[in-house]
Amino acid sequence: MDTQTTVDEKPDLSQLEPIIGEYRGMKGAVIPVLQKAQKIYGYLPPEVLRRISAGLRVPLSRIYGVATFYSQFYLTRRGRHIVRQCDGTACHVRGAGKIVERMEQELGVSAGGTTPDYRVTCEVVYCLGSCGLAPVAVVDEQTIGKLAPEKMSAILKGLE
User: Fold this and answer.
1) How far is CA 5 from CA 38, 69, 116, in A?
2) Quick one: which of 89, 64, 74 has its CA closest to 121?
């Protein structure tokens, strides 16, 4: 993520211009443009979707449809840190539910939520492909296995 907007700040749309220029008129441009825009802003604010629509000359309904269809795109601002706790079968039977409860307690938000200061977004996912490390989480793209609620608390406290 290169930049993120604050709550009251409008995104700097000038950062989109080179991307839109690169893809204008190309078939299949919507997904790569949305991916690059999300990398810049951290999510896809309405102003960004409207600018992409106008710049690519693609109806806003189509841009919005793509952005809401694929789970890789986010329409709301997310935290600086992303914690994904697995609750798939192997993790679940090894206590992932208690880890999720501890995350919610420590952060003061429900799973799927973001702290009010945009420090952490916590998500529950249903397989990270690391069943041998169960219970496992991914914190800012780093896989951490053999978790317990206490270990998750320490990890959350260490996130700036």
Assistant:
1) 12, 24, 14
2) 74
Q: Which two tokens stand for residue 23?
A: 């893809």
DSSP assignment of 31-60 equals: HHHHHHHHHHHSS--HHHHHHHHHHHT--H
Q: Return the domain boundaries, the chain.
A: 13-69, 81-157
The Cα-based distances of 153 to 72, 78, 81, 98, 99 in angstroms read 27, 20, 14, 11, 9
Q: What is the pLDDT of residues 10-62, one digit of tens each?
A: 899 999 999 999 999 999 999 999 999 999 999 999 999 999 999 999 999 99
Is residue 63 a contact partner of residue 30, using CB atoms and an 8 Å limit?
A: yes
Domain 81-157 bears CATH identifier 3.40.30.10: yes
Q: In what order do the strands lie in the sheet with 120-125?
A: 120-125, 81-86, 137-139, 142-144
Distance of CA 70 to the CA centre of its chain: 12
| C-beta of residue 54 within 8 angstroms of C-beta of residue 17 | no
- Give me the DSSP letters along 67-101: HHHSTT--SS---SEEEEEE-SHHHHHTTHHHHHH
The bridge status of strand 137-139 relative to strand 81-86 is antiparallel
